[in-house]
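Before we proceed, please read the two lines closing this message. Report back on whether the structure tokens fit the sequence:
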Amino acid sequence: MKTDNTSQKVTKTQLMHILEVSYPTALKEYQTIIDSLQIKRDYLTISDLVLYGIL
């Protein structure tokens, strides 16, 4: 995945493929990342994944 546009939203399905996990696990991880970074919005961006250390 390119990281040029770091404000681009990341879907739960995309996170599943990035982490190479099942969809239910990706759902849990998605919420864990949002909670850990204390994000007020209900979606992740590429910059969030970079900040979290995934990308």
In short: Strands lie at 9-10, 44-45.
